[in-house]
Amino acid sequence: MDSDRATRLLHRAREARLAGDRMPVAPRAEIGASWERVLRSGIDPEQSTESVLLDPDEIEHRRRNSALGEVMPLLSEGLVSIADAAQQIMVVTDVEGRVLWREGNPGVLRRADGICLEEGAAWSEAVTGTNAIGTALAGRAPVQVHSSEHFVRSLHTWTCAAAPVRDPRNGRMMGIVDVSGPASTYHPTTLALVGSVARLAESEIRNRHLIAIDRLRSVAAPLLARLGGRAMAVDAQGWLAAVTGMPPVARLPLPKSLRPGRVWLPSLGMCRVEPLLGGWLVQVADGPSDGPPRRVVLDLSRPRGLVVNVVGPVGTWTQRLSPRHAELLYALALHREGRTASELAEDIFDDATRTVTVRAEISRMRRHLAEVLAHRPYRFGEGVEVEVIHPEHPGDLLPRSTAPVVVRARTTE
After folding, report:
1. Which spans in 20-113 are helix H?
2. Spatial contact of 314 and 290, defined as CB atoms under 8 Å apart
3. Mind giving me the DSSP string for 152-167?
């Protein structure tokens, strides 16, 4: 089947899906799944792709705080000259789908302005429908979107290929690298090229991190050799460079705002923290401490921002929660007397036999919340005040959860 005929069939399939009719051909699985997500979100296929742009200061702030800024020369070297020659442009976004950089063919850059593919624009699926940037973000995988595969009609004259770039230290997505251009510039190998350059960027970030850790280790090792007791040197994100007096860990959870002085760290207790070139020296205070955390705030008000805030003797620290961990902490907040593993399995899975899963999840939580959670039975520690912040509407409590303890709360509050 020639490409023109395939494009016409795909256009007919899209029109049939929008009308609720049987499609003459099925789109690719990732495109079909994206169309369904976009239809559920209420995007108008005839809408403009314009969005409110970030102001220049916010764009610059996001650039400075993105590790992708460090590898922009590599991305440019790997993609821009090829994209320029192919009448295309390279676009790099953050994890929200906001365009932070773009480079490439001047004529295509001008055309991109017409569809708001410019710095500061929003290109998530929720804003712009099916497109390579937004669909790669939603599917967390490389994707190519061509012509009528785009949900919004004004993008049918475009083709794009995008791949996520992940932080090699923890696997979290940092942003998207994309190549876009007029539909006439489509080539099936573009996606492989973009994916390869994204992997090169991840490798460069990994190498830069290892070099920084080695540099910090060279500074910290002589200090640790002279110290008694338990101590470690970590970088600004908590990655371990050196340790003495205790078992090594890959990463030490740190508060968002860390300052020199006495700090309560959930995995170590009271510590003395001092700045090092490129990181922190953390010494565990083995003497008398100021006591464990006194208050826990379980914030379930935003489904995409589930956190627990722990108020300790010298400040507050925050831990992001997975939906499963939020369910477990919610169950424990309702039952301050404690729950056995089988009772929690009943609360979460409606199956008292799933104790192995419960114990594993609690064990993972205790890595960060050891000073807050007790066991035998599982419960919040004695003397810890617990507050739960609910969403404004009861029905929005952990909306995707099917845990009986949550389902009951939605209908009784």
Report:
1. 29-41, 56-64, 72-75, 81-85, 106-113
2. yes
3. SGGGTTEEEEEEEEE-
Indicate the pairing of strand 385-389 with strand 295-299: parallel
Q: Rounded to the nearest 5°, which phi and psi values hold at 199?
A: -65, -35
Q: Which uninterrupted H or E stretch holds 325?
A: helix 323-334
118, 4 Cβ separation under 8 angstroms: no
For the stretch 244-290, pLDDT in tens is: 999 999 999 888 778 787 788 878 888 888 888 889 999 998 765 55
According to the 3-state scheme, what is the secondary structure of 255-267? CCCCCCEEEEECC
- Per DSSP bridges, beta strands 295-299 and 99-104 are unpaired
Could you give the count of Cα atoms lying within 13 Å of 178 in the half-sphere of its Cβ? Answer: 35
* Model pLDDT, residue 287: 62
What type of residue sits at position 107? G
Q: How far apart are CA 398 and CA 381, in angstroms?
A: 24
User: Over the stretch 201-241, which tens digit does the pLDDT of each residue have?
Assistant: 999 999 999 999 999 999 999 989 888 789 999 999 999 99
Q: What is the DSSP letter of 397?
A: S
For residue 178, which of 164, 199, 157, 158 has the smallest C-alpha distance? 164
The residue whose two tokens read 């705030």 is 297
Q: Which helix (H) or strand (E) holds 272?
A: strand 269-276
Query: Which class for 407: exposed (0-12), middle (13-18), buried (19 or more C-beta within 10 A)?
Result: middle
What tens digit of pLDDT does each residue of 358-410 get? 999 998 887 777 777 888 899 998 888 999 999 988 888 999 899 999 999 98
Give the C-alpha separation, 52 to 98, whole Å.
10
Nearest by Cα to 39 from 129, 119, 102, 150 = 129
Tell me the pTM: 0.66
CA-CA-CA-CA torsion for 19, 20, 25, 27, nearest 10 degrees? 90
Instruction: For residue 186, give every residue at least 6 positions away whose Cβ sits within 8 Å of its Cβ, in sequence order, or none.
Output: 3, 146, 147, 159
Burial of 42 (0-12, 13-18, 19+ CB in 10 A): exposed
